[in-house]
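## retry 2 of 3
previous attempt timed out at serialization; input unchanged, resubmitting
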Amino acid sequence: MKIDKKSIKKIAHLARLEFDESSSEKMAKDMSQILEWVEQLNELNTDNIEPLTTMSSEVNVMRDDKVGSHLDHEAGLKNAPKRDSDYFRVPKVME
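## retry succeeded, writing output
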């Protein structure tokens, strides 16, 4: 499948991308190659293939949840650089 310049401009607008004319030609070529590769994958027979949930063969080792001791809020706030009665004080992230 070939991607034309009109499609590239529309995709760039939707993705909020900006690039010059020479870059748009390269982008069209690259995207066309990607779509050709996907079309090749669509030709494969995957009827008897189980879907993958991960690419790794490693297995997570989980520990059992156990109730244990925990810090009370005074001990947790003891070493806080800034605090306000029962809360940590942190710098504003949003205005």
